[in-house]
Specification:
The structure holds two protein chains of two kinds. By secondary structure, chain A is mostly helical. Chain A is 66% helix and 6% strand. Chain B starts with 11 loop residues before the first strand and ends in an 8-residue tail after the last strand. In chain B, strands 4-3-2-1-5 form a five-stranded antiparallel sheet. Classes of the chains: A mainly alpha, B alpha+beta. Bound molecules: guanosine-5'-triphosphate (GTP) and magnesium ion (MG).
């Protein structure tokens, strides 16, 4: 037969369309075996996803679309689905419907038929329908709709083969003889208007591929997007009169019938749905409260709800951040080993100046390791969030919090992005900003996009930890509390500010959201999503961060030392070597230590000292000794002189002096290099501005480099306050000693913390901001605004704090409670305002009546 | 005029018409809040807003501001 029916183009294109949460992504995974976000939260798939599979007859390209309640687009994601169906005209559309909620689902089915798309109906969630006591006569439904109907249970992978077969059969049938189905719904008194509009648009070749009846209906319902299609395809010259006609028809209809067109359309569809269901679906609502109802009675109880919410967030925090952090102590040694391995492969160190390949290589490894260290935390965090999404609780969180969020210009559905971004501690702004796509309210969506970066992403945590470790040892837990809760305070205030100013003109739309039934999350689904989001993060490490690390490396190393100062260092180096040679002139170890062996010997010595310091306990220390003895038995007596060997002892003393001299020289060179480097000059150039915040050029350099990725701030500080090779003081100790020597105080630390909390998003996030807002203007805004805000706040706090002689903890408490009071004030004011507006509106309505 | 906003939790009413327009109205219709449909107000959120209503086979939450635009008939008593 027509097996090669579709050979005209490349395989068959199949789209999965349906209402939100119907199980499209789950079925997509079942069909293609691909990975796709699955969650029991409306609007999880926010962009279309491609996959494919092969059946006997060839390849089937499959597209998973975002959920749409109808084909009139309400949110951005719904527009994605509708535009795909309209522009790409897939060969087959699989309409995934929730069998336990057929009545509502079939409204969309009818619209797909009006769009004249060849459709296969997948009755998903058959298990839920059955357990609700709903029985569905598939054959009757298929006959009445004139569509192939397949029963599936996506979660268990049931119904894959029948669905694939139905897709193939429909594709073959369409390729052989394309048929438009008869209009599924008659619209009674509206029909004359529809017919006349069809007559107006039918001759327009520019509208080829747009079903005219559908277009007429949409225009009559005043659908703005349909009007846009008309405008785009025909130009305003031709489109104008047609729209004008539509407007007249609408007026005539509404005055004659006393009912609005959209109400009429829905009512007509609903009647058709009722006849479709009549007798084909039996059972259903027996009035008994479902499991979901019973759970919600407890979980959404007015008094218990906040407790459950706090408990949930605390559980996430405990499990992923606290336990995850503990887990990293087990995973870190592997990363450290990796570094050692790579260090061994790279060209070895010279006496004074190492080859670039070595320093750059180690720089990159260190940058990557800092990030990879978080992987266990992310795996747990994202799994925990997936469980909350998949169970259906995330939608309840949005329900509980909408009031508060709305008051500050955000939206109930801002919850997920904010949690992903790291409300309390730990998250990542990249998935956070990405998740804003499901928010239907444009203004709230923009406000969310711009405030997600204020959350405590995981990368900010190391700097916080570092500063707390140096300056706030006694007040650590209080400071931790401030830091983890101040982000949300700032975010709400900033959201309000933006909503009242730059976002003022943006469209808003209401919070109308389905509360899905609770599901038990599936293990595979949770793992899948956790791995996927973590993978996104690792990709970020692999690309943006490493690329920027190279740039920062270059900016820190160029232009390098001047020839004369280099010569000066070399001279001093040679002097130290000469001294060593003189000391060993009479020594029996002379030949072992001098000549070509000298540099390897010094390296060996520093390696040994570092290894010894890192070795914990006598056993480990013994292992180090053995390792070094086998590595080079000739050198060994010089780093660990045997008892009684006086020559060895003397040589050891000289070697120690040489190593110390080398170390001093290297540190001086590094300091000079960074001071004269490009980034150093920029950092110093900024000092006049940043001095009010107390930042010297080193801190400036660290903050600048953290734009690449927040993680780099600590890494860069680590370099700036670099330890000498055989030193094993922690960064806390080194920085503490050095900064305190320079007069740094807890106040400076607070200034840094505040700046960092408000600091612009990292590069990867700004790219995501560009993607989600679709404009470079907003991307630029997302960088510039927080910079000024952060600098302003930090300067104010530092300057006022210095003038008042406040300690760090006092300043922080003042800022925190001040912001908190402001938050309450703004919240209460906007409540009163809303109340006043409402009364005005109501009295207006009363006057109208 | 009685709106969905006036209905106490537990109350069961029939939707008469929408006063909203445009995309909002469409969304409400799409989610099943159609004229002539019976809805039960289940609860309001802990801070009193939004509210949750139960339809035939699904639960929907909406803000009071939108609930105020949905005109409903007088309370229906349950025929048990
Ligand atoms: N009980 C049951 N649950 C299912 C079935 N199919 C999917 N689910 C669950 O339903 C929820 C929603 O599934 P998704 O595949 O994310 O739904 P979707 O249609 O892609 O949703 P959006 O992308 O948000 O529009 C998840 O919790 C799934 O595990 C099924 O056949 N039976
Ligand atoms: Mg999906």
């Amino acid at each position: 037969m027509s097996e090669h029916a579709s050979s005209g183009h490349q395989g068959v294109l199949v789209a999965l369309a349906g209402q939100q949460n119907a199980g499209k992504s789950t079925l997509f995974n079942v069909l293609t075996g691909a990975r796709q976000h699955v969650a029991n939260y409306p609007g999880v798939t926010v962009d279309k996803k491609y996959g494919q599979y092969a059946d006997d007859a060839g390849t089937v390209h499959t597209v998973d679309l975002p959920g749409t309640y109808s084909l009139t687009s309400f949110s951005l994601e719904e527009r994605v689905a509708r535009e795909f169906l309209l522009d790409e005209r897939p060969d087959v559309t699989v309409n995934v419907v929730d069998a336990s909620n057929l009545r509502r689902s079939l409204h969309l089915t009818l619209q797909l038929l009006e769009l004249e798309l060849p459709t296969v109906l997948a009755l998903n969630m058959m298990d839920v329908a059955e357990s609700n006591g709903v029985r569905i006569d598939k054959t009757a439904l298929a006959e009445r709709l004139g569509l192939p109907v397949v029963a599936t249970v996506g979660r268990k992978g049931e119904g894959r083969e029948p669905l694939r077969a139905a897709i193939r059969a429909e594709a073959t049938r369409q390729a052989a003889a394309p048929t438009a189905p008869p209009p599924p719904v008659r619209y009674g008194a509206l029909e004359p208007a529809i017919v006349q509009l069809i007559a107006r648009t039918a001759p327009q070749a520019g509208l080829d591929g747009v079903p005219r009846r559908w277009l007429a209906l949409q225009l009559l319902q005043g659908d703005a997007a349909a009007a846009q299609v008309l405008e785009k395809r025909l130009g305003s010259e031709l489109a104008g009169p047609i729209r004008e006609d539509a407007r007249r028809f609408i007026e005539a209809f509404e005055s004659a019938e006393g009912i609005e067109v959209s109400d009429h359309v829905v009512a007509c569809r609903d009647r058709v749905v009722e006849t479709l269901l009549d007798g084909a679906v039996i059972g259903a609502d027996d009035g008994r409260p479902s499991v979901t109802d019973r759970i919600d009675r407890v979980v959404l109880n007015r008094w218990a709800a906040p407790l459950f919410l706090v408990a949930t967030v605390f559980a996430i925090y405990q499990v992923s951040i606290v336990w995850g952090y503990e887990l990293t102590t087990y995973t870190w040694p592997f990363l450290a080993k990796l570094r050692e391995l790579i260090a061994g492969v790279l060209p070895s160190a010279n006496f004074l100046v190492d080859p670039y390949s070595r320093s750059l290589g180690l720089w990159l490894v260190d940058s990557a390791n800092t990030l990879l260290n978080y992987v266990p935390i992310f795996l747990i965090l994202f799994a925990a969030i997936a469980i909350i999404e998949d169970s259906g609780y995330m939608a309840r969180i949005a329900f509980i919090l909408d009031k508060i969020l709305h008051r500050f210009g955000l939206h109930g559905q801002s919850t997920l992005p904010l949690i992903l971004g790291g409300v309390f501690a730990g998250g990542c702004a990249v998935p956070g900003v990405m998740a804003t796509k499901g928010i239907p309210d444009t203004r709230a969506r923009f406000a969310t996009i711009l405030t997600v970066p204020f959350m405590n992403c995981l990368a900010k945590v190391p700097l916080y930890t570092l500063l707390l470790g140096i300056f706030f040892v006694e007040h650590k837990s209080l400071m931790m509390f401030y830091i983890s809760t101040m982000t949300i305070i700032f975010a709400l205030l900033v959201a309000k500010l933006l909503t009242k100013t730059v976002l003022r003109g943006q469209e808003t739309s209401p919070f109308v959201m389905e509360l899905p039934q609770y599901h038990l999350p599936t293990v595979s689904g949770v793992l899948r999503r956790s791995f996927e989001r973590t993978w996104q993060y690792i990709q970020k490490v692999g690309t943006v961060v490493l690329a920027v690390a190279v740039v920062v490396f270059a900016l820190l190393h160029l232009p390098g030392l001047s020839a004369e100062s280099k010569a000066g260092y070399e001279e001093r180096g040679q002097a130290a070597v000469a001294q060593f040679e003189a000391a060993l002139a009479e020594n029996s170890y002379r030949d072992v230590a001098l000549g070509d062996n000298l540099v390897p010997l010094v390296n060996y010595f520093t390696d040994y000292k570092r290894a010894k310091l890192n070795a914990a306990g006598a056993a480990a220390s013994q292992r180090v000794a053995e390792k070094f003895e086998t590595r080079n038995p000739d050198f060994y007596p010089l780093v660990k002189p045997p008892a009684g060997d006086r020559d060895a002892k003397r040589a050891w003393g000289a070697l120690r002096k040489l190593a110390a001299a080398r170390q001093t020289l290297r540190r001086e060179m590094r300091e000079e290099r960074i001071t004269t480097s490009i980034l150093g000059s920029i950092g110093r150039g900024l000092e006049p501005v940043t001095q009010f915040a107390g930042f010297d050029w080193k801190i400036n350099v660290a903050l600048l480099s953290s734009f690449a990725a927040r993680e780099s701030s600590v890494a860069t500080l680590g370099v700036l306050f670099q330890q000498d090779d055989d030193q094993n003081a922690t960064l806390e100790e080194r920085m503490g000693a050095e900064t305190r020597a320079g007069g740094a105080t807890g106040l400076l630390a607070v200034s840094m913390l505040l700046f960092f909390a408000l600091y612009p998003p990292c590069l990867a996030t700004t790219i995501m901001v560009k993607v989600q807002t679709g404009s470079y203007k907003w991307m630029l805004f997302s960088i510039v605004f927080p910079t000024f805000l952060g600098l302003g706040v930090a300067s104010a706090v530092y300057s006022i704090g210095t003038a008042a002689g406040a300690s760090g903890i006092t300043a922080m408490s003042a800022v925190y409670w001040g912001a908190f009071a402001l938050l309450l004030l703004v919240g209460l004011l906007s409540e009163r305002q809303a109340g006043r507006r409402l009364r005005a509106r109501l009295s207006q309505a009363g006057a109208d009546a | 005029m009685k709106t969905l906003n006036d209905v106490q939790p537990g109350g069961r009413v029939r939707i008469r018409r929408h006063l909203s327009t445009g995309a909002v109205r469409q969304r409400l219709l799409d989610l099943g809040l159609m004229p002539n449909v019976l809805v039960t107000v289940v609860r309001s959120a802990p801070l009193n807003d939004p509210i949750e209503v139960k339809l035939d086979a699904s639960n929907v939450s909406l803000r009071r501001r939108e609930a105020r635009t949905i005109e409903v008939s007088a309370e229906e008593t349950d025929h048990v």
